[in-house]
């Protein structure tokens, strides 16, 4: 068998590169301020690698980059990824610096070139891939992720902006430690997106009852057969994409929520919605300002609004093309027990002839 | 062909608009200054181009030299090589009165020259050019491992740092001992 010419070519190129004399640049002879400027202009991956060269350079990097801010977007799944974006993102589009963590096994043990040390792990196989960033390969890649983020926080000013958790890709035993670790970030995490269809009931209950996310939280999992009581979520902006597991009690337990969307909420009956609406009127969700209910089925408007005094919106501008106020346009208003004003909208479907499937509720709170 | 046509057509309407302006405000003749480096070759640079350098701009702002005085007193920069100073002067001339682009690809590729250029630009306080140069230096280690970075940037290992520190301590100790011995001798 002849040698593969393509591979041969690559090998030859690599040999030539190795043979080529490396041009040197004595960075330590530059004035301190210039050297610090060079370090600040480097990509976070290179900053990290530069800090690995010696203890003295580690200190230099810390001194130079302590005010350099990056936003961390973490992805946790089969592969963990920590992407660092400049704080101007997404206003100004930017490519992130990516650190990826993969389990070291027979498949991934393909020529990891150089070793890095992170925290208590002295020797981690790692290689740099131009487009995809710096890969770390280790048996416990989740532990490495934690250590590396701690190291990045040590070197730079890192703000935890977003986390995407793909629970199905993470081993069951890692679910709880992951949530416990995420709860340790004092400033919280602005956006949390959680995916997972096959998570154990126990792990999901643990996650929902313990996760301290106080900002935006999105659940996309289908979670068949899931049950939870109570549901003390702390997020103020919540969206649950598949709500078949939720009960009316669960909805009314979300005391911190300001805005929420219940997707695929066809399991709730019209009477359930009537109960939720009445509870909102009596002050059950004291901070709630906006609710979007995605019913995805036909419903009876009269049942949902039963025993609630509604006043139909009657704006000349809205109904200028109709003889009398149209029930699908403009919504209805009602009074809450504390005197605030509420509105309910029955959204029109974009295609004529099809039923409207979504309901929006707004509470006009003067203090919100 | 088309480019020259475009050039002439775009230049033609510009004339009438610029003429009244120049008539209204008579143009102040641009003043020039002279600089020389280690090789003593004198470079003539306009005051506009020299504005890029905070150091020279500070020196000339209140000088009020006439053309003859400026010619007779070139600014000496003995610590900058002639070819490096030429490079800096060329850059200043090219970017005179223009907004600086986000990237400059005309910087020297040889690391030795780039090092001298960084030092010169830092000394002359040319902020934009210094940023380009530093970016170029930062790009040297793109995609490189810590070992390769160490080699390119000539960074000593921890062991070498420790040895150097020990050596420095030893030397300092010896010097201190020598000084105390000398002081004791003087006292006697």
From TrEMBL, chain A:
Pfam families from the UniProt entry: F-box
Ranges where the F-box domain occurs: 24-73
PANTHER family: F-BOX ASSOCIATED DOMAIN-CONTAINING PROTEIN-RELATED, F-BOX-CONTAINING HYPOTHETICAL PROTEIN C.ELEGANS
Domain of life of the source: Eukaryota
Stretches of the chain forming a coiled coil according to its record: none
Source taxonomy: Eukaryota, Metazoa, Ecdysozoa, Nematoda, Chromadorea
Protein name: F-box domain-containing protein
Automatic annotation (TrEMBL), chain B:
UniProt region (Disordered), positions on chain: 1-25, 160-188
Keyword Electron transport: no
Species of provenance: Caenorhabditis nigoni
Record key words, sorted: Ubl conjugation pathway
Superkingdom of origin organism: Eukaryota
Compositionally biased residues, Low complexity: 8-25, 178-188
Protein's name in the database: Skp1-related protein
Stretches assigned to the SKP1 component POZ domain: 38-96
Gene designation per UniProt: Cnig_chr_III.g8742
Function: Probable essential component of SCF (SKP1-CUL1-F-box protein) E3 ubiquitin-protein ligase complexes, which mediate the ubiquitination and subsequent proteasomal degradation of target proteins. Regulates cell proliferation during embryonic and larval development.
Pathway: Protein modification; protein ubiquitination
